[in-house]
Amino acid sequence: xxxxxxxxxxxxxxxxxxxxxxxxxxxxxxxxxxxxxxxxxxxxxxxxxxxxxxxxxxxxxxxxxxxxxxxxxxxxxxxxxxxxxxxxxxxxxxxxxxxxxxxxxxxxxxxxxxxxxxxxxxxxxxxxxxxxxxxxxxxxxxxxxxxxxxxxxxxxxxxxxxxxxxxxxxxxxxxxxxxxxxxxxxxxxxxxxxxxxxxxxxxxxxxxxxxxxxxxxxxxxxxxxxxxxxxxxxxxxxxxxxxxxxxxxxxxxxxxxxxxxxxxxxxxxxxxxxxxxxxxxxxxxxxxxxxxxxxxxxxxxxxxxxxxxxxxxxxxxxxxxxxxxxxxxxxxxxxxxxxxxxxxxxxxxxxxxxxxxxxxxxxxxxxxxxxxxxxxxxxxxxxxxxxxxxxxxxxxxxxxxxxxxxxxxxxxxxxxxxxxxxxxxxxxxxxxxxxxxxxxxxxxxxxxxxxxxxxxxxxxxxxxxxxxx
Length: 469
Hints:
Elements: H1 10-15, H2 24-35, H3 44-47, H4 53-60, H5 63-68, E1 73-75, E2 95-102, E3 105-111, H6 139-147, E4 151-154, E5 159-162, E6 167-169, E7 174-175, H7 187-190, H8 196-207, H9 223-232, E8 242-243, E9 246-247, H10 251-255, E10 257-259, E11 286-288, H11 291-297, E12 300-305, E13 307-315, E14 324-333, E15 335-342, E16 353-356, H12 366-372, E17 377-382, H13 386-389, E18 395-406, E19 416-427, E20 434-447, H14 449-461, E21 464-468
Parallel strand pairs: 1-4, 20-21
Antiparallel strand pairs: 2-3, 4-5, 5-6, 6-7, 8-9, 10-11, 12-18, 13-14, 14-21, 15-16, 15-18, 17-20, 18-19, 19-20
């Protein structure tokens, strides 16, 4: 059983923690701290009372201050547990190449062979994959890495160093801000011009690939990062409020996250952890859709964007970036019905969900019905396994979050590219007027001038208010 502070051990640990009771990694960290002449060390499992929810909530909300203000963060990167320790065998003993003397001065040149430079450049690893260590898979460790201004990494056969100016390792390779090592995010402190929302989405994507031992920590383990991001944001960009892992500023863009497209979404999280419209509601890795910014540069314009009218948000603790007890949002946009089926393509190794439109429905107009019956190219991603998302009925309400179209037609017939980004919503069992998110989709085609007019008119005139929990 790993050593930790509990309500039972608090008094005795306040007086003394037996040296032999600590695992090797803790002892090595204390030894290094003493060698550096530093009087205090923070170790989460010892400095937070692990079975006291109030102390845990209070201290976890202070991670931005604790790690952001630390003199040095010690990262036992290659250790799989507390017994792994910090210090490992170097890659190769250095060799004395030459010794020269001039008067009383003596100079020695020592070198060793470089095995690889894997810690800085993922392209040097097989198939361009990032090298993985036990600590890099932990969600809490990612936050600690982002928040810390100086870190020493004890890797499997060398030591790495990161600060605000550079990254170094014993292999001799140095890195600039444009050549980031896999474990860091230079833009967090190094480039204040980086869009805060884009930076946040990239952090969330990486964070969603990390593991948590406690499901309820999904939001608390990123609380310090959210606080620090708000502090780094320039005064001309107001992130405003924070809702279960998403910022009020550019909220619609952040709602368009998608579960990983590997075809293996994980089951729903129980008990409640976050609203279904938040990435924190699922345990599958996620990716955000930043396509709109590239499209705007390529001659597209944003024809329509949903409006978030209000967000109801209840916290479970005093940490405004932490656990959520209840939440829902209301939005206004154009909607249309559809249903989801598993593909019957026998050539596919795995059945995939497909979005289909009904032949007839009570839409805003007959023209709109004809528009939806065009030969659209559709791709969707579900948040959960199909059988879990649709245990009975497979009908969904598609809420258009964005519509992007080409400004100038590129064909003689006036056809122009059109893309609809949609949320896939399903009515809840408690109320047909309340919805939960089950996925996202992209509806895409080139449309004629006549169909474009129909779409534009429909998006302007047909608006529905939705409550999404």
